[in-house]
Amino acid sequence: MKNRKTTIRKILLTGALLTALINNATTNLYHNPVTDLKKTTFTVNNVKQGNKLTIKDLNGIILYKEQIKDSGLYSKGFDLTSLPDGSYVFELEKDFEIKSFHFTVNLNEVVFNKNEITIYKPCVTSKNNYIYISKLALDNAPLDVKIYYQDGIELIYSESIKDTKVIEKAYKLDANAKGKYKIVLKSNGREYYEYITF
Description:
The chain is α+β, with helices and mostly antiparallel strands. The chain has three domains: 1-31; 34-119, Sandwich (Immunoglobulin-like); 122-197, Sandwich (Immunoglobulin-like). 17% of the residues lie in helices and 54% in strands. It is built from two helices and 14 strands. The protein has helices at 2-29, 33-38, and strands at 40-47, 52-57, 62-67, 72-78, 86-93, 97-106, 109-120, 123-127, 130-136, 143-149, 154-161, 166-172, 180-187, 190-197. Strand 2 and strand 3 form a beta hairpin. The longest helix has 28 residues, at 2-29.
């Protein structure tokens, strides 16, 4: 009787293991290599946790957005063939730069432009009653600067910096006008906002 119970248990356990193996084996049978062939693998070295990856059309509409979770190498497959015919861009936003990778979709075929475009973001720091703004503009793109007092209510300074590759400016604020300042910077068709309290 004891041997019979042990044998029945072994048979049930073997049956359960075979069922699990068969289920796992059949899920691989439904793998579609045609779908995988359509995927484009996007790989970038030297990313940091918190960098942002977006896919946009040329009108600036965001089609995909992701915050990178791990530093190092980033690699992910995208099925870009399902996009309508047109021009698009992958943008990787890092701390001080934005890298753009342009591609086109035409009749379900994806073609990447081999030229990577890098835009350097402006950097704003402050110390005491000074605001320091710096930006690398290798393409000589102008930088429009607006400084507002009281968190954007009162415009106190405005200028456009042109025809220079290295922008380094210092702005002295009135030592008696303590409070919140909003700095609006425009360059390369983008707007950046910084808030400073002193």
